[in-house]
Amino acid sequence: MRKLLQIWNLIKPRGGWRYPTIIMVGAFVGLFIYTFYISRAYSYLSDNPRTCVNCHVMSPYYATWSHSSHARNATCSDCHVPHNNIVNHYFFKAKDGLRHSAVFTIRGEKTAMQAIPASSEAIMNNCIRCHAQLNQEFVKTGHMGFKETKANNGHACWDCHRDVAHTRSRSEVSTPNALVPMPDTKVPDWLNKAMMERRVK
User: Fold this and answer.
1) How far apart are CA 38 and CA 11, in angstroms?
2) CA–CA separation, 41 vs 73, rounded Å?
3) Are the C-beta atoms of 26 and 156 separated by less than 8 Å?
4) pLDDT tens digit string along 57-111?
5) Which of 2, 64, 68, 99 is the most interior residue, by most CB within 10 Å?
6) What predicted TM-score, i.e. pTM, was given to this entire model?
7) Domains of the chain from N-terminus onward
8) Those residues with Cβ within 8 angstroms of residue 130's Cβ, 6 or more apart along the chain or in another chain
9) 149 vs 141, 142, 144, 159, 169, CA distance in Å?
10) How confident is the model over 141-152, as pLDDT tens digits?
């Protein structure tokens, strides 16, 4: 406790900077809390597939997954996030989520989205994890991960199984009339009401 007090005494603002610093720190904390709430960042701690459609560009992927055989037994995280340990699971989710939010915010996503190499590795490892009996007992292809496959000029699982689990949709226009559970609006009721009244006039 004494060490923390010494650190605080070193960094605390002095003189005329005390109140401006308190205001700036308060504004930063308030902005962080507001951003955390409005972006539904808390929802990413769960593995609920509805979380993915917080970003509207993910609608076709949710729609095609929900009509696939995988929807009965696998969530988005079951395929797209590593499962080797809990720390890597959440670290990967955070890292990938921050990358997605940055790309989607600046509208930098490609019309035809593709997985980056780190995501491809997680997806293929999860294919192998879930279908281990098929690979090792029935077909006897063994266990070869994404990196080994690519190093040997081999094929990833989806090179042959192209319609699993998102069919061939790769953009928002591929499922134009899909019904997906879009997130509830965070616009307050009083503001919605004021906007509706203004439209009527």
Assistant:
1) 32
2) 25
3) no
4) 888 888 888 888 888 889 999 999 999 899 999 999 989 888 888 888 888 777 7
5) 64
6) 0.70
7) 39-200 (1.10.3820.10)
8) 74, 78
9) 12, 12, 6, 12, 25
10) 656 677 777 777
